[in-house]
Amino acid sequence: MPVISAKEISKIYETADATPVLSGVSLDIAKGESVAIIGKSGSGKSTFMHILATLDKPTTGSLEIDGADALKLSSRALDSLRNRKFGFVFQQFFLNGRDTSLDNVALPLVIAGVPLGERRRKALEMLTAVGLSEQAKMLAANLSGGQKQRLVIARALVTDPEVIFADEPTGNLDTENGKIVTDLLFGLQKEKGITLVIVTHDTDLAKLCDRVVHIKDGRIVA
Ligand code: ADP
Ligand code: MG
Fold first, then answer.
1. How far apart are CA 62 and CA 175, in angstroms?
2. How far is CA 190 from the centre of its chain?
3. Residue 171 confidence (pLDDT)
4. What residues does ligand 1 touch, defined as CB less than 6 Å away?
5. Of 79, 98, 97, whose CA–CA distance to 159 is shortest?
6. What is the C-alpha to C-alpha distance for residues 86 and 147, in angstroms, rounded to an integer?
7. 124, 137, 139, 204: most buried, per Cβ within 10 A?
8. What percent of the chain has pLDDT over 90?
């Protein structure tokens, strides 16, 4: 059974022209695989990934997560599902600059109700894994771009997610930090069997994935 199964997804934003952003897109994602979603800017990649990750709802179509209908869940049940199963690595970092690195990484554990001591231990373990243990007490705002992206990865991983969704994870990074981030993501996929869903227009990054899905004008093309 696929972890995520999307069938005939369409999305129309309620804007003036109401052109479909996605039209009849279907995709099954197996546990442990890495899938790159590639396409030009504006082709609908992020919209599709947000729908796969239950962050947005399709206009029509179906979405199953572990065989269960995700479109029937309440927003509260979806929050809990995302917190338990998914990790997010988005380009807009959504870090809290006025909190320390440690507190940023520990936040998903606060939401999950994990006790303080365990939160600190796990957050520090993750900071160490991404090479930021020295920066644990620094405010997130004071980190460099590459460090912020690694911090986002540490935060995405701290809950031991089954699936990581990454939207242009190397988009803002120089070559060196891009490689660090890429090595981290694929290392995890291999070591822990994490499923990776990566939106990118970087063909080198896409080549590292088990499978590449091309989106053009809101449709999957061969
Ligand atoms: P990509 O990630 O491939 O660059 P997006 O999924 O972000 O593409 O956007 C696809 C299209 O949908 C674009 O034309 C974009 O302007 C439009 N779009 C994205 N989000 C919204 C929104 N919230 N409201 C209206 N239009 C949107
Ligand atoms: Mg995008």
1. 38
2. 17
3. 83
4. 13, 15, 21, 39, 41-47
5. 79
6. 21
7. 124
8. 76
Q: What is the pLDDT of residues 81-107, one digit of tens each?
A: 998 999 999 876 689 999 999 999 999
pLDDT digits (tens, 9 = 90+) for 113-170: 999 999 999 999 999 988 999 999 999 999 998 899 899 999 998 998 999 999 998 8
User: For residue 160, is it left (φ>0), alpha (ψ between -120 and 50) or beta?
Assistant: left
From the number of C-beta atoms within 10 Å of its C-beta (0-12, 13-18, 19+), residue 32 rates as: middle
Query: What's the whole-model pTM score?
Result: 0.92
What residues have a C-beta under 5 A from ligand 2, the ion? 46
CB atoms within 10 A of CB 3: 20
Per DSSP, the three-state class of 140 is helix
Choose which residue among 11, 21, 38 to substitute to test ligand 1 binding: the one with the highest number of ligand atoms within 8 A of its C-beta.
21
Q: Which tokens go with 169? A: 């994870």
Residue 60's beta-bridge partner residues? 10
Distance CA 195, CA 45 (A): 18
Ligand 1, atom 25: nearest CA belongs to which residue?
13
**Contact (Cβ atoms closer than 8 angstroms) between residue 177 and residue 205:** no
Among the bound ligands, name the one nearest to the CA of residue 217: 1
